[in-house]
């Protein structure tokens, strides 16, 4: 009986829930994408930048990594507004998550690049490769294998951090769930269901990571 | 004559020296009228105040207060852009101009009144007690008479115990962490009564007609009012006028309908003749 009521309520609420999943996925994908691109830049700067650049970027990563995501979300929504950059809740949220993601990816990339023996860069130089070529053909592919497991971890963290955007009113999956609960009073059931959906999204990311790992592994 | 002239010149010079924005500062009222819609902040997760209907439309008593203001502005209660905000965002969103107006069951306190300007109140909240329809206790007096024999279910809160004991000094207090659980405790007989906001009780009884009853006692008064940014008396006056006339004047039917929809009670129309405010 209880279960039947749950599924009936769920069916009635399918559109808002699907919209919520849509928003959660788009926030996550955008934040991970932008964060990864920025993060690669951060990692390169940390590894190969000259001293002033390295210090600047080190300051950026340490500051961002040491700040709670919630604070970043609130700052990009409220503080940027006071200096004239008026972002909507969705844009402000994506920006905060992307910045947070970039600092983590930057450190992961730096670690991976530094684990490659220096001799490889020297050998690439010896055969006349420019730096972009060295990165694209020698360092990049090796670093990618090192980066993947940690990157999957960060990506999953981003999906979970997207729930914080409900505070500034982005109608993502958690807020949609809370809206549903306030109407139906079925809190345990729907929180559990939302948890399951987050798991599905993160499981998808994990499978994607594994897939890329397989594709890029060295055939033995 | 000469003195008057030089005084006028001095006044002109002073005006010119002032920043342009300061002398032409428009009220938000003009800004909203020029924009063509009201930007209102409210939540989406608390029935019957602000929540989503089954077809995903924002509704509730707070939402209707915004609709009253929009109707006064444009003659159309639907000209509202809602900014969905959590309770924590109510005051920051007002002070950083994300919204023109916030109506989100905001309790008026001195501390908050230092940060934002409150409108006139539109509801007075209090805690009430709800019993099962077939409960062995008839009303508040019976519950109080039973002393330590009654168990009250209540939402978990630092003040929960003291709050219940203010009305029922000897009652046993069981705290639960979500709203559905306090109702479930009553339903399953683990509690004899639920103590929570009267508006929530009224809404729950309306959703489940004839299964529960109100014990007929209220305490812990709190005033709910909308909030606007400080320092714009023109805009505050306008919102106050709109709300005031909804409770006492031409828009009374709008307010009374909303009250009936969300709290299940009919309001007596304001008495004609001498204004009720001065009684």
Automatic annotation (TrEMBL), chain A:
Presence of the UniProt keyword RNA-binding in the record: no
ABC transmembrane type-1 domain: residues covered: 21-209
Gene Ontology biological-process annotations: amino acid transport
Cellular compartments annotated: Cell inner membrane; Cell membrane
Cellular component per GO, a single term: ATP-binding cassette (ABC) transporter complex
Pfam families reported in the protein's UniProt record: BPD_transp_1 (PF00528)
Protein's membrane topology: Multi-pass membrane protein
TM region(s), chain numbering: 20-48, 69-90, 187-205
This protein's UniProt keywords: Amino-acid transport, Cell membrane, Membrane, Transmembrane, Transmembrane helix, Transport
GO molecular function: transmembrane transporter activity
InterPro entries found in the cross-reference section: AA_ABC_transptr_permease_3TM, ArtM/GltK/GlnP/TcyL/YhdX-like, MetI-like, MetI-like_sf
Family the entry assigns: Belongs to the binding-protein-dependent transport system permease family. HisMQ subfamily.
Descriptive protein name: Amino acid ABC transporter permease
Organism, as annotated: Aminobacter carboxidus
From TrEMBL, chain B:
Residues in the signal sequence: 1-22
Domain Solute-binding protein family 3/N-terminal: 37-266
Keywords: Signal, Transport
The name this protein goes by in its record: PEB1
Domain of life: Bacteria
Organism, scientific name: Aminobacter aminovorans
Residue ranges that the Swiss-Prot or TrEMBL entry lists as coiled coil: none
GO biological process, one term: amino acid transport
Family statement drawn from the similarity comment of this UniProt entry: Belongs to the bacterial solute-binding protein 3 family.
